[in-house]
Write a structure and sequence with these properties.
The chain is about 50% helix and about 15% strand.
Length: about 300
């Protein structure tokens, strides 16, 4: 899911990287300037990054209910499926890395065998699904695992044929050049101290975010937030993000990637969202109902029980 196709990589190298350098970023919007406006947190409220970047509730009342009233929403089917698929993809990639370190390049057949036999553990989240929903999710898990195993094995063989004296550390890095579930402390920006990116590529560097739903314009706020946090922590520029969209069509997995520049506009948008939602929480202001509450919203019963 996180490996770019040849044409996407060419587009990245020939267009997005040069374009990002050409456009530049206003210095005050770099994450390492977290200690001064506009990045300096105005309110004391601490928010999760998904609360700032998620605009499924257009008024932001979901954050108010969760943070001020301590109400936990009921996860919908899409959220449960997404959580399970995220977890399995990360586990599969870590399993592949572990097999490379365990067996080494000289025993690549054992690496292949470990990966081919990989079977994900049954997530406890299946317990909340109906039989039909669980069966559908199992089918998607199988498709995802089959796709990703083939991709990793292909990359493994390619690296082994190109580098006859490669060691296990380099082989792991070149075969799977992403860090999954990278833990980050967002405290400098008024965010949670336990953030976690879906994946990060250090060589570009680029934040990757995996989605299994319909593309939405605010999805880029997530990669923007993580880019700001990375800049605040490590003080190097992170100019690129990529939303990876997975869609199941029958027995096929369709993958589309939205590579984008973490521009001044996105950075400013993220900061405005952060400050507005932090104000709701710090001053206990109810922003009111959104104008378009879907029945699948985790807080639908709280907000629209009489509707």
């Amino acid at each position: 899911m996180y490996f770019l196709a040849d044409d996407e990589r060419k587009q990245l190298l020939r267009y997005y990287l040069p374009k990002a350098r050409e456009l530049g970023v206003a210095e005050e919007l770099r994450g390492w300037n977290w200690h001064q406006p506009p990045l300096e947190p105005v309110y004391g409220a601490v928010l999760a990054l998904y609360e700032v970047a998620g605009k499924y509730c257009s008024s932001g009342r979901d954050v108010f209910l969760r943070r001020v009233h301590g109400i936990k929403g009921e996860p919908n089917l899409a959220m449960i499926q997404g959580a399970v698929l995220h977890e399995i993809l990360a586990d599969l990639l870590v399993t592949a890395k572990r097999a490379i370190y365990l067996h080494g390049a000289e025993n690549y057949r054992a690496i292949c065998e470990t990966l081919e036999k990989y079977t994900p553990a049954v997530s406890p989240q299946f317990a909340s699904l109906s039989d039909a929903e669980a069966a559908d999710l199992c089918r998607k898990v199988e498709i995802l695992c089959s796709f990703e195993k083939a991709r990793v094995l292909s990359r493994l063989q390619e690296m082994l044929t190109r580098h006859p004296y490669i060691g296990e550390d380099s082989l792991a890095n070149l075969t799977i050049p992403v860090v999954v579930e990278q833990k980050l402390n967002g405290a400098f920006l008024g965010l949670s101290g336990s953030l976690s990116t879906d994946a990060f590529i250090f060589s570009e560097p680029m934040i990757l975010d995996l989605k299994f739903g319909e593309p939405r314009d605010f999805h880029r706020l997530g990669t923007t937030g993580y880019a700001l946090v990375m800049e605040a922590l490590y003080e190097f520029p992170v100019n690129l993000g990529c939303i990876v969209y997975g869609e199941f069509r029958g027995d096929r997995l369709i993958v589309k990637r939205d590579i984008h520049i973490i521009s001044d506009e996105l950075r400013q948008w993220f900061i405005e969202e952060r400050d507005e939602k932090a104000r709701f929480v710090a001053e206990e202001i109810d922003p009111g109902l959104a104008g378009d509450c879907p029945s699948t919203c985790p807080f639908y019963q709280v907000c629209c029980a009489g509707g």
